[in-house]
Amino acid sequence: MKIHIKKYLALMLSAAMIATLFTGCKSSDSNGEESIKTQESEKTDTAQESETLSFSVLTIDDDPEFMEWPLVKEAKEKFHIEFTNQLAAWDSWDETFRTLAATDSLPEVIAWYNLKYSEYASYVEQGVFKPFPEDLSAYPNIKKRMESYSVCDDMKIDGVLYAMPKTINENPYNEYSPSLIVYRKDWAKALGYDFDDVQELSWEEFVDYLTAVKTKDPGALGDNLVPFDFYHGGQGWLDFVSLQWNPYLSSNTSQYEKTDSGYMWGAKNEKSLQGILEFKKLYDSGLIYQDSYADTSNSGLERFLAGRVAVFHGPLTIPTLQDLVLTPACQSLGLSEEDFGIFCVTWDGKFQVREKSQWWGAYAFSSNCSDEIMDRWLRMGDWLLEKEQIEKANYGVEGEDWTREGDTITLNWTEDQLSGDKSYIKLQENFFRRFFVLEGDPYLLEDNPRLSPYFNDIFKQAMETYATKPNYYPVDYDVSYFSGEAFDVISGSLDTTTGDAVIRSVIADNPKEVWEAYLSDMESQTQAAADELTAALCQTEN
After folding, report:
1. What is the DSSP letter of 50?
2. How far apart are CA 268 and CA 327, in angstroms?
3. Quick count: other Cβ atoms within 10 Å of Cβ 406?
4. 20 to 30 A from 46, CA-CA: which of 58, 207, 218, 222?
5. Where are the alpha helices (DSSP H) in 422-510?
6. Which residue in 179, 145, 126, 100 sits closest to 357, CA to CA?
7. In this structure, are residues 187 and 213 in contact, taking their beta carbons and an 8 Å threshold?
């Protein structure tokens, strides 16, 4: 089964937006997007909703106070529903889902995580899921999202949608993955550098700066200084080498590269070894933490928060940049927003950029779900995508937690209260909205007082800088959603084994031999998977 990729359907989106002018009203946001408030969503009681519907939702998100959160209570009353959360642990989600599916015991609604396309397609064939309505006009915000994200169309099987991706909007400015290199401006100034907030550097200039940091030690940290680090320490090396030199080294783009003769395992591209050798120079020069090979998740972040890191790379966005500075650790160091800037680093005169992720979860309905429950749930989800509900999730209850005067939003609480009596704001309310949508919606709120204007500005500048001379790599969804006997066996573990091989090669005295040994060890398995891809996805001339 071949899934055809369709990029953003601009004409269809325009038509859909024009059509909604005749069915409802719109509220605009700062990025020109519009949430659609329909006549249907404004109904608080109708004949078809006079009966309260009760059902369950399979999810990993729950809380003892979940049903008392203001937005949840409002939604339940508005749409006359009562639902319970059937909780599954994250580390046993796959096992739980498979058991429920095999025993025909799935609840009506599934807030799906860790979706594997091959399993999804198999479940569709088995009749586990209820198909979404072909016409989504009754849910205009959901319809608009679907038409704005190509992955939604890619999830269709034989033209029918059985699971709706929960979309992400972490970068509202273009299609690039929000991967950033952040630097300490205070240390750069101490070294005599007059960098811009967003500074373009060649790779050679970047290495020269790291060397200056190592040599002159602006923080007077001695052996504790780390010139260059990564969010997950050594576990982030694969991502950086992949991004800067060979995007086909990891699944963030694709583990397999399409060539004129068909697909090949991306790690075999000579750019992989080139990147490893360049990266090893940093390691051997002491510009990277020497014990990173033993790192676990967040290890680099911990060193950064301890004030040891001069330059930091990771999947950073506007809120995550802001959250770093607001941590007690950074504040105890006397650091403010303006003490951080962004390096945009070229390789061969180009910025290496990947297509941003569009999703990491989905929601679906089991075949046991009635039409009435599906309709009620979708209308609630459509309502949650309106601007007013985004505001409630991020600001709280209007009139109590916040007020609006013209374009000015005033919050009547402090950040400290978010871990106390106002804990339903931000995290908890967004747990509820996460049934339908993931990260990024706060960007859609004009004059959002919770977003740093400074970090928003430098993030936007960085994305616009990348766009001046990008070497852009889109996600190959044909590969992402492919299923084959050899491919399925190896695909889930390939990032882990490749990441380990990168670490071993970097710290070895003979990196070329170590890397080539890894390629040789994996040759038969990866070639079998590449052959399956070529046979299924590449047309051959007769």
Report:
1. S
2. 41
3. 6
4. 58
5. 429-433, 453-466, 477-480, 485-507
6. 179
7. yes
Tens of each residue's pLDDT in the chain, 542 residues: 333 333 333 323 333 333 333 334 444 443 345 566 654 444 444 435 579 999 999 999 888 889 999 999 999 999 999 999 999 998 899 899 999 999 999 999 999 877 778 889 999 999 999 999 999 999 999 999 899 888 888 899 999 999 999 988 888 899 999 999 999 999 999 999 999 999 999 999 999 999 999 999 999 999 999 999 999 999 999 999 999 999 999 988 899 999 999 999 999 999 999 999 999 999 999 999 999 989 988 999 999 989 999 999 998 988 888 888 877 778 788 889 999 999 999 999 999 999 988 888 899 999 999 999 999 999 999 999 999 999 999 999 999 999 999 889 999 998 788 888 888 887 778 889 989 998 888 877 878 888 889 999 999 999 999 999 999 999 888 898 888 899 989 988 999 999 999 999 999 999 999 999 999 999 999 999 999 999 999 965 44
Return the beta strands (E) in 168-308 as ranges.
180-184, 198-201, 226-230, 256-259, 262-265
Instruction: Report how far residue 350's alpha carbon sits from residue 466's, in angstroms, rounded to the nearest whole number.
Output: 8
Residue type, 392: K
User: Per residue in 187-212, is it b (16+ CB within 10 Å) or e — as a string?
Assistant: bbeebeeebeebbbbeeeebbebbeb
User: Which of 477, 215, 207 has the alpha carbon at shortest distance from 345?
Assistant: 207
Distances in Å between the Cα of 139 and the Cα atoms of 2, 129, 327, 350, 539 are 28, 20, 39, 42, 38
pTM of the model: 0.82
